[in-house]
Amino acid sequence: AWRKYSVSEFGNKEEFEKELVRHIETTLARSMYNCDEHAAYSGTALAFRDRLIIEWNKTQQRQTFTDQKRVYYLSLEFLMGRALDNAMLNVGMKDAARDGLHDLGFRVEDVVEQEHDAALGNGGLGRLAACFLDSMATLNYPAWGYGLRYRYGIFKQEIVNGYQMEVPDYWLDNNPWEFPRHEITVDIQFYGRVKNYQDETGKIAHSWEDGEIVQAVAYDVPIPGYGTKTTNNLRLWSSKASSGEFDFQKFNAGDYESAVADQQTAETISAVLYPNDNLERGKELRLKQQYFWCAASLFDIVRRFKKTRRAWNEFPDQVAIQLNDTHPTLAIVELQRILLDKEGLEWDEAWNIVTKTFGYTNHTVLPEALEKWSVPLMQNLLPRHLQIIYDINLLFLQSVEKRFPQDRELLSRVSIIEESHPKMVRMAYIAIIGSHKVNGVAELHSDLLKTTLFKDFVKIYGPDRFTNVTNGVTPRRWLHQANPLLSALIAEKLGGHEFLTDLTLLDKLEAFVDDKDFRDEWAHIKTMNKLRLAKFIKRTTGHAVDPNSLFDVQVKRIHEYKRQQLNIFGVIHRYLSIKAMSAEEKKKVVPRVSIFGGKAAPGYWMAKTIIHLINKVADVVNKDPDVGNLLKVIFIEDYNVSKAEIICPASDISEHISTAGTEGSGTSNMKFVMNGGLIIGTCDGANIEITREIGESNIFLFGNLAEDVEELRHRHFYGSFKLDPQLEKVFTAIKGNMFGDAADFSALTASIEEHGDYYLVSDDFNSYITTHGMVDEAFKNKEAWLAKSITSVARMGFFSTDRVINEYADSIWNVEPLVVKD
Ligand code: 26Y
């Protein structure tokens, strides 16, 4: 039924073919006689791009014309993955394309694979932003994303002799999905000094003078909604040397070489995505990136608002800005600066506008991920902003002092400025003070924010400023696109694809849990998806894995708190057990494939050591004839969004095993369950809500609870530390050089045995191993396993980002969809 809403169509495959040939022969200047798969990809992309542009222009005109409140999602990361398949499915002409490509001798699946992932993000936070864009467009919200157009996305990972190597990801050549807007530029200032002067009314005013100017150039990416007329915009800023007076001076002074060098310096601002996730390093270039992007975006938003000629107090009725973590916190300071210094508003009036405009999403409680910038660094780079930050802090502390007199401890705890050497600016505190709502990303996480990290602010502002919005994922990409077979089966049972835009309709599947034919098809689809992954593994690693084995998957960024080390120690334990078995005992073993994937931040040695251990264990296990097919260990190189689309539908069980209280939410847990996989996990992040929705009997939970973590850590340090006996056997094997030189892994074992086991690997090991035993037993009962799989999918309706976006829209943004009538 929604087809009638879709954009101007090719109508049929012949029209698609015509467009394809036209683009290949003219736009690409290539001949159809030597049209390879890549040319077929480019031609198809251009054909679909044309369809997107028309609706995109109309959407933008419509949004300007109706002039209702818009949402701006500020994120330093947008982990988009590939665009073509998404465009085909959202526009709704994939069948015409498939048939047309077939006529020309291509398979649409192969053509789609030619596209380079747009990997402008690290992990969960960046992928969440991409899912949000999809849902905002699908739900017809007038919404823009703002980010940076990195020349290099997240590095490509290669595994060489078991070690991670990083290779730059230069992805911009021939990208058909971006539109340079050379006419949309903003001059961004850095360094310089603040001049105080008296304005006409005699009041002291401030102006920021001198310094350097870098130009921001807009690049726009269309974001089509699924089956709607809305195509929203993602605007990415690219840095370029300013062509202003400043540079001409140098050129004219004959200093050509240094003037060219300055140009290159300007261009490095948007050159590279910082590859750290949850690890703050305080690099000046990163602060430059943040300000560059915030200032360009704010200028753009304010320019758009000013065209409406409304009064400033209407700004928050027209504009909602959401901060994806603290990375864009400078936007708060920048808006205050614009209103004060450029528009001449009084402080209180300006600050009132600012706080009504912003919302802040926190994604982590890990102390090492909280952004702090040194005061001297900021003083140098952004002198006026630092002044404003001090003013915000002064007024805030005065108001706290009034309400809680004589509590000096409280004042120093909540001060934006940390009194360390050097002094540091706490960005999260600016984000809280400058926003009207602060949210966490799953219930436990949001509760922890209120009771630990932001406790004092709850006391000051009351509990209403703090809220929870549990994460989700877009079912268009993570069910329909990643798992076309399952999506088709569900559509057949439910009588259409409406579940893709109302995921709660999945609950109708429960009626078919006992339907024999349905169960068989369900099982068959899982097998097909495992086969697809097995082929991929064969092609990329050379290892043959048996699709009848239990596929056990952990794919995510490598981090000690996510505990891939717990997983690989568990694998070693399993390996040792199998080796100790008689032939008779081996017959009862459920064959397993343990699949790992994920990148380590280049400077994070412990994470790299974990990758090294996984690969060394794989080397030994995979060629051990004692083990054969009973255990295989696979490390999938360069895990990314497009690989996730193959991996998620193929898992029997996936691992979400962070130390309780450390994972904000997790979102791949949702992707796996939505595709009929079960979970082994801790009581952490959104695992808790997943359990509530699907039922305790459909998930394998283990390990200590968040409330006990502090006590356990304390005991490790002040009591005696006793290594779990089964883990001890694992360590003995490692130390006996079973997986190569034990010295390579000594930091890892020592972090547990000698340095307090901060992530409670030893405390949770027994429970983890026992629970894996239960997984094996459960997997033997195919029928019961299938019932769990189907029931879980049926109950996953809550985890669509459509629900998430509606919650943000209602409780934080106060925006309405802009629905078009025909
Ligand atoms: C400050 C800088 C080094 C930094 C860069 C990236 C800090 C954090 C990050 C990325 C954080 C991230 O990806 N967080 C994840 O966000 C997901 C979406 O909310 C959560 O599901 C996940 O639990 C959380 O780790």
UniProtKB/TrEMBL annotation:
Modified sites of kind N6-(pyridoxal phosphate)lysine? K671
Q: Which cofactor does it need?
A: pyridoxal 5'-phosphate
User: Which keywords does this chain's UniProt record carry?
Assistant: Allosteric enzyme, Carbohydrate metabolism, Glycosyltransferase, Pyridoxal phosphate, Transferase
GO BP annotations listed: glycogen catabolic process
Q: Does the keyword Glycosyltransferase apply?
A: yes
Q: Does the keyword Manganese apply?
A: no
Q: Which GO terms describe its cellular component?
A: cytoplasm
In alphabetical order, the GO MF annotations are: glycogen phosphorylase activity; pyridoxal phosphate binding
Q: Which InterPro entries match?
A: Glycg_phsphrylas, Glyco_trans_35
Pfam families, alphabetized: Phosphorylase
**Reactions mediated catalytically:** [(1->4)-alpha-D-glucosyl](n) + phosphate = [(1->4)-alpha-D-glucosyl](n-1) + alpha-D-glucose 1-phosphate
This entry's Enzyme Commission designation comes to 2.4.1.1
Per its UniProt record, what SUPFAM superfamilies does this chain match? UDP-Glycosyltransferase/glycogen phosphorylase
Function (record text): Allosteric enzyme that catalyzes the rate-limiting step in glycogen catabolism, the phosphorolytic cleavage of glycogen to produce glucose-1-phosphate, and plays a central role in maintaining cellular and organismal glucose homeostasis.
**Protein family according to the UniProt entry:** Belongs to the glycogen phosphorylase family.
Q: What is this protein called?
A: Alpha-1,4 glucan phosphorylase
Q: Which organism is it from?
A: Penicillium atrosanguineum
